């Protein structure tokens, strides 16, 4: 079997060096998907692999725009504002030949709403899913939800019959510790089907000949061989030596090396991820500073001064070697609510910043601890180190404490950090998502990542109202007003938007996806 | 004799117990697995629920006791990262590490002994001096650097050998082997050189100094006086006596080869238990970390025990002194 496929590939190679109609693509990134179960892990690499094999109702193309997936049309119901109607694609087949219909959709969405699913929160507004015909589905929400389709783009559809036959009705239970059939096997409607999978070693996919999109998408990659290569130097070496055709996460120090090599290109695009600092501005006194009885960060003038002290251009030029977009707001571009005006980078002005510190009564400065991850964002620790020097210029003596993400994030979530770095991507491409997690007061249902102790009752009300505001113009206006308030209060200190770098052989024709999630059906060969 | 063996085994069990305790108490400083297991969109409620499900909300002694209870029954729980039984993952990953260790161990032994004898016999020759100088490089360069250099020369510049992975493997029952395919064998070359280089220079220098020592002894002089040929003197008389301490060291180094495989496996993306452990540390995959550390300590304790017992059998002085002490 293996020998046969090897022979086949070599035949392909022999016959298709230039006029590539059909080719194998060897792909490497730092980490492997954790599981093939589409609802068990809401995690980048896992979704990326899953969506080659299975598909959502509403998809995104490589530019991040909404496109039809397994649904051809979706609209809010005219009679009931709490209902979204989806028209499903007719004549779609699963890899095992089963027909796709509304039963599978209802099954998959219900499965994703169970307790063990990692997609429960994304679907928190869903009250009920019902099939109103073989190719019609209605999703009933708890109150109107104008952006329901945005919540479905990572929600992949499984075959109900296959799941029942293979005892995969329940989501893989990490905690209870069962390994289900769906963790290592998958039956989807997607452009590629699984040939073999060895977790952390190699996953082989082949183009599905019964795919509904044949002829609508390039689909020139006939076979995908995915291997994780964790060590960045080895990953780059594998590309340079020609052992792989396409790598994600090219380290910034190797960009020129890859780009300068014959037959290799680096492709870049801004990523849907913004990096910023959060500050404890709500507590009366800080645990990790040298000021007693007062909290310097609770004074907006201090936060403004800090915002002016960060030299974002220097960070971009020196730390990131040009591979970042300085930011003025903690909101990635291309997300609804983003404007160039909001994202205008604050001018670095040490004199004005010092004056503000003086005015706030901190002319002599203060000391504070900055918590920073060292294995999560691009050059995260180096950014923090550069910032230490910048804050020192206005008298703030920062003690940097950098550690692995597994230790960093618990500090944020247990409210043990007064000053921390965080990065955020917005899968729904809408500001509401950021407000819910990062701006709303921390509580049971909202603000689970807001460790600034910032709490503004009016803002909270406005944020909660967004979920059911169906008038798009009014909703956008409200989003704008919330951002203005956030900026005025200097809730976060934005640093930059990350830039993605993909390295590939020059004849691979692909653009960079803003979510770092290649969709191989769009790949072609020059 | 029997009393001695029983005492040594009891000591070994105690060592394992302590290793488990130390390892387990260290996991709390590695970080919190919960954030890695739940996505960005989790609520506070999810965190509490998962913590309770995994038993991470229990006090440390309770957690450790549970681990011991399960481990005693051969149950190491489930990997937090892959959601599969740890035992299955270890069985899947062990062949890669063992094959790599076997090849680099053999390489280190054959070359180490060969070059050691050569440098001892021709101790002032230019060749011996060159080899001795070169061996300093093997001792002093860190493993990951050797690996990257080899990848740079043989994969990137020359394009002869693969830079990552095991190539095609063949399943022999539960065992995946890379020995039966061309790409599998090619993939073994660079990682086994990287892993074996340090051991090779160590063995070489040891053999050389032991050999020089032996060659100065009286019975070698007598052998020469009897008119025995060079070959018989060197290989029948000298080498055999050289090997006693060397074998001990080789035995102890076996454990190191498997434990040191971590760095080599990370550089070459070699899908063995070392890479598994590194991934587990980054993810705070406690069940995998615990199982791996226990496995490695069993290995070391076992090797030490065997070496001790062999000494006991080989060296009559040990036995008499023990008897005399009672």
Low-pLDDT residue intervals, each spanning 5 or more residues of chain B: 322-326
Main sheet properties of chain A? 9 strands, mixed
Mean pLDDT of chain B: 83
List how many beta strands of chain A DSSP finds: 19
How would a crystallographer describe the biggest sheet of chain B? 2 strands, antiparallel
Distance between the termini of chain A: 30 Å
Q: What is the CATH-assigned architecture of the domain at 103-283 in chain B?
A: Orthogonal Bundle
Broad shape of chain B = globular
Instruction: Report strand % of chain B.
Output: under 5%
CATH topology of the domain at 103-283 in chain B: MetI-like fold
* Rg of chain A (CA only): 24 Å
Share of helix among residues of chain B?
over 70%
Mean pLDDT of chain A: 89
Strand content of chain A: 15-25%
CATH class of the domain at 103-283 in chain B: Mainly Alpha
Order of helices and strands of chain B: HHHHHHHEEHHHHHH
Identify the strand order in the major beta sheet of chain B.
Answer: 1-2
| Biggest interchain interface, per-side counts | A-B, 59 and 57 residues
Topology:
The complex is a heterodimer of chains A (526) and B (326).
Chain A: H1 2-15, E1 23-29, H2 44-53, E2 58-60, E3 66-68, E4 71-76, E5 83-88, H3 102-112, E6 126-133, E7 136-141, H4 160-165, E8 192-198, E9 202-207, E10 221-228, H5 232-240, E11 246-247, H6 255-259, E12 264-279, H7 300-309, H8 312-319, E13 324-326, H9 350-359, E14 366-373, H10 380-392, E15 396-403, H11 405-413, E16 419-424, H12 431-439, H13 457-466, H14 472-488, E17 492-505, E18 508-509, E19 524-525
Parallel strand pairs in A: 1-10, 1-11, 14-15
Antiparallel strand pairs in A: 2-3, 4-5, 5-7, 6-7, 8-9, 9-10, 11-17, 12-16, 12-17, 13-17, 18-19
Chain B: H1 2-30, H2 33-37, H3 44-54, H4 60-72, H5 86-121, H6 126-140, H7 143-157, E1 170-172, E2 175-177, H8 182-215, H9 218-225, H10 230-268, H11 273-283, H12 286-314, H13 316-325
Antiparallel strand pairs in B: 1-2
């Amino acid at each position: 079997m293996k020998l046969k496929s090897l022979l086949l590939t070599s035949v392909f190679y022999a016959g298709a060096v230039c006029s590539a109609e059909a080719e194998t693509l060897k792909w490497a990134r730092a980490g492997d998907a954790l599981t093939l179960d589409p609802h068990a892990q809401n995690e980048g690499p896992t979704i990326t692999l899953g969506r080659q094999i299975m598909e959502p109702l509403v998809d995104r193309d490589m530019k991040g725009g909404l496109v039809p997936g397994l649904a051809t049309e979706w609209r809010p119901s005219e009679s009931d504002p709490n209902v979204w109607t989806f028209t499903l694609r007719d004549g779609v087949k699963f890899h095992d030949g089963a027909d796709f219909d509304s039963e599978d959709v209802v099954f998959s969405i219900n499965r994703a709403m169970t307790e063990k699913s990692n997609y429960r929160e994304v679907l928190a507004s869903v009250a009920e899913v019902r099939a109103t015909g073989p190719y019609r589905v209605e999703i009933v929400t708890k109150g109107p939800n104008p952006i329901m389709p945005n919540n479905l783009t990572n929600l992949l559809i499984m075959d109900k019959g296959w799941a029942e036959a293979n005892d995969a009705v329940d989501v893989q239970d990490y905690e209870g510790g069962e390994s289900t059939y769906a963790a290592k096997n998958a039956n989807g409607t997607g452009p590629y089907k699984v040939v073999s999978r060895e977790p952390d070693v190699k996953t082989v996919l082949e183009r599905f000949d019964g795919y509904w999109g044949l002829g609508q998408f390039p689909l020139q990659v006939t076979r995908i061989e995915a291997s994780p290569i964790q060590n960045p130097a080895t990953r780059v070496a594998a590309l340079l030596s020609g052992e792989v055709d396409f790598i994600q996460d090219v380290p910034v120090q190797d960009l020129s090396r890859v780009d300068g090599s014959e037959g290799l290109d680096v492709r870049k695009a801004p990523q849907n991820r913004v990096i910023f600092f959060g500050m404890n501005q709500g507590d009366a006194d800080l645990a990790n500073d040298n000021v007693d009885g007062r909290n310097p960060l609770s004074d907006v003038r201090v936060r403004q001064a800090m915002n002016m002290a960060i030299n974002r251009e220097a960070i971009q030029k020196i730390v990131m070697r040009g591979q970042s977009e300085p930011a003025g707001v903690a909101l990635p571009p291309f997300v609804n609510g983003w404007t160039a005006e909001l994202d205008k980078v604050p001018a670095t002005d040490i004199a004005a910043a010092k004056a503000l510190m003086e005015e706030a009564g901190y002319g002599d400065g203060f000391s504070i601890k900055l918590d920073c991850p060292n294995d999560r964002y691009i050059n995260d620790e180096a950014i923090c180190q550069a910032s230490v020097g910048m804050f020192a210029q206005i008298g703030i003596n920062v003690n940097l404490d950098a550690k692995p993400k597994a230790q960093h994030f618990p500090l944020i979530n247990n409210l043990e950090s007064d000053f921390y770095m965080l990065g955020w991507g917005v899968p729904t491409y809408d500001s509401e998502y950021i407000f819910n997690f990062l701006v709303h007061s921390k509580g049971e249902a909202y603000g689970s990542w807001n460790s600034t102790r910032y709490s503004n009752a009016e803002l909270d009300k406005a944020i909660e109202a967004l979920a059911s505001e169906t008038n798009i113009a009014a909703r956008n206006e409200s989003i704008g007003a919330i951002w203005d308030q956030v900026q005025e209060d200097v809730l976060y200190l934005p640093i930059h938007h990350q830039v993605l770098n993909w390295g590939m052989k020059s004849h691979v024709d692909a653009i960079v996806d803003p979510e770092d999630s290649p969709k191989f059906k769009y790949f072609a060969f020059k | 004799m029997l009393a001695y063996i029983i005492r040594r085994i009891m000591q070994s069990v105690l060592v394992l117990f302590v290793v488990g305790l130390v390892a387990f108490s260290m996991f709390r400083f590695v970080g919190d697995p919960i954030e890695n297991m739940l996505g960005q969109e989790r609520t506070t409620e999810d965190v509490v629920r998962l913590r309770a499900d995994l038993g991470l909300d229990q006090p440390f002694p309770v957690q450790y006791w549970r681990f011991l209870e399960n481990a005693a029954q051969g149950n190491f729980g489930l990997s937090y990262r892959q959601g599969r039984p740890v035992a299955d993952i270890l069985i899947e990953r062990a062949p890669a590490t063992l094959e790599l260790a076997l090849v680099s161990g053999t390489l280190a032994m054959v070359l180490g002994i060969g070059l050691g004898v050569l440098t001892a016999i021709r101790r002032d020759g230019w060749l011996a001096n060159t080899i001795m100088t070169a061996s300093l490089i093997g001792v002093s360069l860190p493993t990951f650097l050797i690996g990257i250099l080899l990848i740079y020369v043989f994969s990137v510049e020359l394009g002869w050998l693969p830079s990552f992975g095991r190539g095609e493997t063949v399943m022999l029952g539960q065992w995946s082997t890379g020995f039966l395919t061309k790409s599998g064998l090619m993939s073994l070359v660079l990682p086994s050189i990287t892993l074996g280089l340090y051991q090779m220079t160590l063995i070489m220098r040891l053999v050389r100094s032991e050999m020089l020592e032996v060659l100065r002894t009286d019975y070698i002089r007598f052998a020469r006086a009897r008119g025995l040929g060079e070959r018989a003197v060197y290989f029948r008389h000298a080498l055999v006596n050289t090997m006693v301490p060397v074998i001990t060291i080789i035995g102890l180094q076996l454990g190191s080869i498997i434990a040191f495989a971590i760095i080599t496996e990370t550089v070459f993306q070699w899908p063995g238990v070392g890479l598994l452990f590194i991934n587990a540390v980054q993810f705070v995959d406690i069940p995998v970390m615990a199982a791996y550390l226990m496995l490695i300590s069993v290995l070391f304790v076992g090797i030490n025990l065997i070496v001790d017992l062999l000494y006991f059998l080989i060296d009559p002085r040990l036995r008499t002194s023990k008897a005399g002490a009672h």
